[in-house]
Amino acid sequence: MMENEYGFSIHMAIGIVEILVAGPLVVRMLAMRRLRTPLVRRLSKWIAGNAWLAWLAGTGTMWFWHIPAVHHWAMGMSERHIWWMAVQQLLLLMGGILFSWPLLGPCRGLRMHPLAGIIYLATACISCSLMGLLITFAPPEVYPGVSPRDRETAGLIMWVPGCLIYLTGCLLLLRQWLHRQDRPRIVLPKI
Amino acid sequence: MISNTTPAPEQPIPGLGISSPQGLLQWISSVDHKQIGILYLWLSVLFLLLGGASILLVRTQLILPDNHFLAPEAYDQLFTMHGTTMIFFVVTPAIFGFSTYLVPLMIGANDMAFPRLNAFSFWITFFGGLLLYFSFLAGGAPDAGWFNYAPLNEYNYSSRPGIGYYCAGLLLGGTGTVSASINLIVTILYNRVPAMGLRRLPLFVWMVLINSFLVLASFPALNAALAMLLLDRQLHAHFFNMVGGGSSLLWQHLFWLFGHPEVYILILPVFGIYSEIFPVFSRRPIYGYGTLVGSGIAIALLAFGVWVHHMFATGLGNTVNGFFAASSLLIGVPTGIKIFNWLATMHGGSIRFTVPMLFAIAFLIEFTIGGLSGISFAIVPIDWQLTDTYYVVAHLHFVFIGGSLFGLLAGLFYWLPKISGRRPDDRLSRWFFWSFVIGFNLTFLIQHALGAMGMPRRVYTYPDLPGWAICNQLSTIGGYVMGASVILLVFIIVKCVRSGAPAGNDPWDANTLEWTTASPPPLRNFTSVIPVTSERAFRDFKRPEDAAGASVQRQMIRRSERNAAMMWLLIGTEAIFFLSLLMAYVYFGSNPGFTVTPSALLNWRSTGIFSVLLWASSFGYWRAEQRFRLKNTQLSQMWLRVTIGLALAFLAGQAKEYYHLVHEHHLTLSSGIFGTAFFTLTGFHGLHVLVGVLLMVLLLVRMNSKPAVLSPQVMRAVGIYWHFVDAVWVVIFSVVYVAPHVLKTAI
Amino acid sequence: MQSGPVIVSLLNIRLPPMFRPASPEARLIGSIGNGFLLAATAIALLVIFLTVWITRRYGQSRRPGEPSQAPAGRWLEIPMIGGPLLIVIAFFFWSMRAMNAVLPEREGRAADVVITGHQWFWEVSYPTSGVVTANEVHLPVGKRLLLELNSADVIHDWWVPALGAKMDMIPGRSNHLWLTVQDSGNYLGACSEFCGQQHAWMRIRVIVQPEREFQQWLAAQSAPAPAPQDKLAESGRSLFLTATCSNCHRVKGTAATGREGPDLTHLASRQTLLAGRTDNDSASLYRWLMDPQKLKPGARMPKFHLPKDSIKALVAWLTHLK
């Protein structure tokens, strides 16, 4: 099924959407009052205290599935077992959900400070760009059965559009921060 | 002055004090941010004269086709020194001069967070510049262009010592820039008056903040490249040398990974200067404060994803070029937005055409031209025609002069009354403005055409083709006009400093805190700071009717965390340095591939044992720090000794491994690309371990002699460094030792 | 003929070669260049207009006193961001199309001409016929050709403006360039990547000929060097072979097989000497042999301190290598 000329790139595009678009959307959905169960609340609390683990889950997911050996094995699996595709997508989605939890989590009070969020996203962006860079300039033997053009496109999807998603996130956080209202302590007298 | 109903003034953060004036000696030993800022600015003027003189010689050579005024040897040295000087020792020190002078004043502080580090940053930059120029006496200046492409920068093609001086000079200058940036970030974050929330920072301070992060992220790539080049030239390593398995393209990747962000480093703080000047002289609030900050951050982040556009003609293929065309085109958008923001700021105002404002208005047009010609390099097919021609020369000068230098001059005329306490001669300043602008456009507008006519850059002479001579002559005449006006500028500055009319504290009716203190500011900038109600605190103070509803919000600023913050920033930039070395290792391992099999040479088990010792030392340090916090100096010293012992054991293990590799396998730095990459990567790590050991020995000595003086913050800062060194080894160990073993490939 | 604007041709100004494209590749680049020039001029004029208009209308003399501080409407920010974004998106797709047309995949095709940059000359070889020459590249008109670009030492760059894209020559890797020249004639270019002292005198001359003429030239070039006709040339030849000349230069049909310097087999058939430094005549050749470092400082060829007679003999032989 993935035997076409751009198999790797398509996989990559789906992965990026899964982690950086679908994940955040699912987390946003959890913010609905009905879904804000005590369990979700407790989970939020735990993640807020261990944001670096969430960061690692997101970037780790990105890196893990593109380690050549893992990639090869996963491709083989998905050719043999159709259910594997679903499992892999689910794992990617899980990574995305965990990654965006500290920024968009259901409990407003437990979210990261927007400026810390910018650093959170920017460092993830660097890690993602590095992986993209390695894939783009990898020699052909590293990903057997993938055409050079396909590999380059896949790496560049991770590198450039991937980076732009992080960047958009950073700018949204910045906007949120600039518009946030703090409680004034002292008010200047009106003259 | 301040009535009872208004909020109480803020207490500034104290700086170091000097009891008595010490004359000239005081300038050398000063740690006052204002004096250091002034030294930076004079350094910049000095090198502007040197860099300008060298380019006037170059332009004189180009006045006639087939001219023999300069030999190619001299010509190459002069244009290389011109570019290197202007970028690293004129614009950069000018930016850091304004930053160190103004940032504390603008945030209501009395000094930088680390005044001694500030002095160190200046002097090391100064000596970097001197070292670069010393090359003229030592047998020849660098001669491979400011971006110094490999393999022309290698010993085989440039055997004179110039390029060695280039590496050393830029490494020193870069160290100064990085340490100054760390200092600025910590100052901005921790030395603000509590009422100045980040959303109330003047835009100049914002841009300096963003810019400093940009410096920390980009300079390590340059430092790594320079270190590799020095190893190549002095110890016969093979990083950029095809014959030994290296790659000349690696230099380009590393250089532009630094070099493109560097272009923004030279413009972002200047955008901040414009953002101060437009509102003051238009008498209007800045249009889109948030947008300006946001586009600054967007530029800083995008800056790292566009460097390949310097390499569109290297044959990387359409896929790679296409993606980078997209990101390079995109970075034009936030830059363009800023132009419209400034235009919108002037709209509806009451514009005062002072000299700083004249430069700012001229900038809008010149920078638009430079920005648009920049966009043409993001369009790959146009880049294929025009890159490396005089069109690029024109473009980059429109950006560096029409953008950066105009802003620095605007800033100079804006703040000179504050810095010197005197006003520059207005008539002469206007003469300077017009002659400089006319000279600049005459020199560089015409160079766009020269590029389109087919004249490559960096040629020492040219054949007499139709139109070439006349264009070059006009350009040279423009250069002379610029040169003459720079002399006029120096005269204006000297005249202002010696005999200008007194300026008063607030000559421009300005908005920010630096204008609330005397001109020039006393050694202690502020005794108290007015309440900060917005990014225009001083204006709110002077005209409360416009600031109705504004409030003071004090923030918690934990000043004691400054040491730790500094260390985090330092290891952040160190991490990128190691990442660059590691990427080089991975790049060579796969592309062309090592000629030896790492898994056969390296014994991951025995190295693993030493590695465990190193990692165990992190635990030892943690215990030492814990004991120290509990005031148990005795136990703390014991744990420190254990940590040092473990670190030394690791070093001994590494020494044994090196000995084994050199003597059994004849693997050296120069024996092949694997040796080159392996010894550099592990060697730099070993060096960091050694520095850590020295720091811990110092702690130990301090603890023995004056345990009361040693603050837990210092212990913590050294701890952050030490854990970082161990974490880096986790990565190196897995990539170099474990991965080849597990994956059965080179990497 | 020339496709420049009418006014320009009326004034009889020759447009620079970039605007007189002689190949479809250069034409594609030219059209996107013109499109960009139009868009950029429009934007620059807009900014200039706004700057002049605002500074005139809101000058202090016209609006004295402190203006209102009411914040301006934020709606402006949408076109401010949207406008430039749309323009760059349009140019992105345009340039992708042009890139793929100018530089499509090579797909295993062998190169027609291999050009190697040296410090400081161009080695030109034609793999199918085995011809090796230097500095002047002869091409047949109207044929779609694939150039292979290599370097023997540092990075050089191939650029002939009228023929389209430039391309770096990087040691250790081969780059490629497609080229179809539509009109015969001479096209000038130059090395565009700084490559050391004589970067300025690394000019390119592409001589495009009709197919028949090109084949004749190729046949002439593949012949060995002609035998010397007179005594002076004869002595020049033996001097060339006994002195160190033959270590670096090749003259086909003699014992000189060096590959460091340019191939001299048919030196006299070229239009210029030393990568465009001088015309190809015996006076220039004499000057060069007397003191290479004077004519082209830094050149790899050292000064040999030969007596004048010997140099005259060498010149006699070399000018005779048609």
Would you give an account of this structure?
The complex is a heterotrimer of chains A (191), B (747) and C (322). With 191 residues, chain A is mainly alpha-helical. The longest helix of chain A is centred in the C-terminal third of the chain and has 32 residues. Chain B is mostly helical and 747 residues long. In chain B, strands 1-2 form a two-stranded antiparallel sheet. In chain B, α5 packs across α17. The N terminus of chain B is likely disordered. The N terminus of chain C is likely disordered. In chain C, the strands form 4 sheets. A 5-stranded mixed sheet of chain C has the order 3-2-1-5-8. Chain C has a 3-stranded mixed sheet with strand order 4-10-9. A two-stranded antiparallel ribbon of chain C has the order 6-7. With 322 residues, chain C is of the alpha+beta class. Helices cover 36% and strands 18% of the residues of chain C. Classes of the chains: A mainly alpha (191), B mainly alpha (747), C alpha+beta (322). Chains B and C meet through α3, α10, α11, α12 and α14 of B and α2, α3 and β9 of C.
